[in-house]
Amino acid sequence: MPESDRPQSASRPDRRNWIWGAAVGLLFVLFAVLSAIQMARVNRLSRTADDYMTVQTELLRACEASVLRLKDRNAEKEVLLAAEDIPAGTELRLESVTAAAVPARILTDAAIPADSLPKLEGARTLIPITRGEILSRNALNFPSDGKASGQPASGTKSDFP
């Protein structure tokens, strides 16, 4: 066998192995690139989905807060109102006072809650109170030791729950 044939036949399998190796390597690189592209798309989509869920959650919280504010704003409290015109200096009678539900947003701290009716015994009006007006501690004089003190309402907020 001539020597020139031998290297030629020996180089063919090496070249084929090299070509197959290169093809497999290129396929591996192509697979890695496509996988990286797909992972980037998945990450972008999941990030978008996370952003969407975050926005949805924030919107839901804002809606819940608005509903709570509206509930608080529309809440009503039972307070005492004048059932008739009451002149200044008049001692309050049960018949001259009534309870009614009033929106909390229009009440002041001086409004007298309906459950405080027994505490009004002996109180006198400092100013005239018109029918339907909300009774206020500031408009009443409460006797101290059974005598009228002549001072504006001595009751504190804690006296009227």
Task: Write a structural description.
The chain contains 1 helix and 4 strands, in the order αββββ. It is rod-shaped. It has 2 domains: 11-74; 78-159, Antifreeze-like/N-acetylneuraminic acid synthase C-terminal domain (Type Iii Antifreeze Protein Isoform Hplc 12), CATH 3.90.1210. It starts with a helix and ends in a 20-residue tail after the last strand. The chain is an alpha+beta fold and 161 residues long. A two-stranded antiparallel sheet has the order 1-2.
Beta-strand share of residues: 5-15%
Q: What is the name of the CATH class of the largest domain? A: Alpha Beta
Mean pLDDT score, rounded?
A: 76
Strand elements, count: 4
Spans with pLDDT under 50 lasting ≥5 residues?
A: 145-158
The helicity comes to: 40-55%
Please name the CATH architecture of the largest domain: Alpha-Beta Complex
Number of continuous helical runs: 1
What is the CATH superfamily of the largest domain? Antifreeze-like/N-acetylneuraminic acid synthase C-terminal domain
Shape: rod-shaped
Task: Name the descriptors.
rod-shaped, 161 residues, two-stranded antiparallel ribbon, alpha+beta, 1 helix
Give the topology.
Elements: H1 5-74, E1 76-82, E2 97-103, E3 124-125, E4 140-141
Antiparallel strand pairs: 1-2, 3-4
Question: Short description, anyone?
Answer:
With 161 residues, the chain is of the alpha+beta class. It has one helix spanning 5-74; strands spanning 76-82, 97-103, 124-125, 140-141.
